[in-house]
Every structure is written in structure tokens, then in C-alpha cells.
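Question (not urgent): is this output format expected?
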Amino acid sequence: MAILNYETGPIQAEAAFTSDFPVANEIKMHDLVNMQEIERRSMDVRPGMRHKYMPLGFDRFSGALWTGGRYLFDTCENVKDYEHFTSEELEFEPNVKFWSRPFFLNVQRYIWRVAGAHDFKPLATSHHVVRFERFSTQHDQLDQLLKVVWPTLRDQAQVQGLSSVWLMFNQDEKQVSIVTVAAKVDTGNAAEDSIKALAKLESMNSLSELLPSELELTPLFDRTNPILAQWLPLSRVAGGEPSAHPMSPPLAAPTVEPQ
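Got this back:
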């Protein structure tokens, strides 16, 4: 099967959801990749989800796995529905709500409004590594300001050869965030190609440099990671691949029965 229904160009998404957290040491990578593939099937059926990137990282000191999600949704109502469902209803273990699982440590999650999002390169072939940046601000008119600057930021992302860029904000939390996605160059050495792609995206100047100075941004979070998994509900509904694992190899792929 092929990945279907993800075209390049402007992305019609009003809202986004992000989560970031380490997982307890007893969860190994092959457990994590199989767990998310099984559990995805109860989660990506929620209304309005366009797609999800699931990053994978490692704590530089303990070696513990670190993961989360970067999701786009069609409407603010649907992203709020997803947050409510995962917080208040979803249980994979009896009487334990999804975000309260004991092996999810120090979960940070946010709902965002999208000022702009654009895919420059095909999701099916060119979305391998993802960078997520969060900033604090005291500005009280983020919607208006970010939508004005979005075309400049989008065009610079294209000049830099990125695969995708999202510009987002949360007025209540007084935060601005940027998601950037890049492709790896395939030379036949999967591990080396992945390391180079990560290093290149991580070392790029932040697109936040293009945002208005009156935002007075303070960096809060900046992580660049391989994409362990993509959730692809639009493709699944069209009869295509329901999920993908663009960095396998070198990362593990699910060994559970396909959907």
C-alpha cells in the first residue's frame, strides 16, 4: 500500500497538539514502537486528526527513552475533543487514564492555534526528522501578529530546503512554537544518513529569528529528533497505509500484526 491523501502545499489546519515526556526505563524501544502502533488504532480515529509525528529521543545522561507527539487537527473543537478523550476517557490499563500511566514521566502537553502550516515536500518520502521549539512571550495579540509574519517565515523555510513548517501559538499560556521537518539524504548507510539529517536540522538558525522583536521571546524548549512513527488517518480512510516509520532502519519498526 501507498501513503495517500497528503499533498504538498498549504495545510488546512486550525489547531495542533503537542506532548513531550520521558518513559520509564522498563520500556524498551521495541516495546514502545509496538505499543504505539497498537494504541494508535484507538486514537487516530478521533475526529479531525490530519497526522501525527512521533519523535524519539534519548536522555543524554541516563539514556532513557523520550518521546511525545506533534499533531495537526482541522478545528480547535476537534483538538479539544482529543485532549479531553485522552485525559478523561482513554484507558489501556484498567482505571488508569492515558496521560496518568506510571511509565509516562513528567508529561508536558499543549493545545495550539495554528498561524500557518505548509508541506513543501511529500510526507510519504521526505519527512524524517523533526524539530520542536517553544518560546514564552508576554504579547497579548499573538493571532494577528503571527499571521502577518507567517508568509515570511514560510518562504524562508522553503529557502532552507525544509520539508514542512508549522507556526503556532497558545494565547492563554503566552507561548509561541515552531515545528520544522526535514528529509534525510539516502546514501545507503541508514545510520550515517540519519545522524547527518539530525545534525543539519539541529544546527540551522531558528526561524524564530524572523518573528517580530516585540514578542520578546524567551526559549523554553528545543528538541530535534528522528520521527519514529507517523500516524496517517487520511491515508487509512482512503485505503492506504495507516502509519509509517520513516526512520526504520536504523530505528525499530513494529513487529505486531498490521492493521
